[in-house]
Protein: Formate/nitrite transporter
Organism: Thyridium curvatum
Amino acid sequence: MVNTISVDCVNLTAYTPAETTELVSRAGVKKGNTPPHKIFLSAFSAGCLLSFGCAVSLTVLSSPWYQENAPGLIKIVGALVFPVGLVMVALTGADLFTATTMFTTVAALHRRLPVWKMLLHWTLCFLGNLAGSLFLMSVVFGYGGIFNASPYKEEVIAFATKKQVAPQWHEIFLRAIGCNWLVCLALFLGTQAKDLGSKVIGLWLPIFSFVALGLDHVIANMFFIPLGIWLHTPGLTVGLYIWKGKVPVPLPTFSVTSPLGGLNFKLMNLKVSFLQLWVTF
């Protein structure tokens, strides 16, 4: 007799928002108490994995005919393939800066994680993501010459110009707020799911939305913009990238969306008062 194992591809049940908030909090405690070197390595892996999704999206967007005749369609297709990077990050448990800030914020609000550990985790994740993104961009795609030929090179330059050279500082900042909000929502929905198929769908939809809307993601830009610099995008320099990419894009993550997302989940699902919230810190 052969033993069989029944596996549900999609489970129609899910954790409630309150249960999900508790799971997010516990995950935040685990992340915040991880040894620093492991946090950095996990974040390095996340930077690499997300960069693969960025590269796939750029490859799809490098279609001149569609760019001229059906720009909306090719933008949607590019947005559909981009989330593969975040899905790989989430399913492998790697630490992405824009997502892990929500987890550790909720844990800190529950007084399960000291604020200094939360801030240390944020810092190591940011640096690890940057290192991973730059490593993959330079070693695999830069020296590998994957985007050196036409039309891929033209698309990289056009994309970097659109993301970093053309917009104003405040425009990039405001776009990053919307982006980080959707990234936090994606990880919340992914945590809410009880099976792999539902988890992927929950992760995919908000990420697809922010890419289709043209919002700015700080870790994705760690691949897109340095690649544009590598390929000599006119007007794009390291100094400009630091001023318009390293300040306005990550700023909403730790000042607006992740903290407020954590507050929102805590207030809605755990029924604490603003007085209790103030006492937490």
Remarks:
- Residues 270-281 have pLDDT under 50 and may be disordered.
- The chain is about 75% helix and 0% strand.
- The chain has one domain: 17-280.
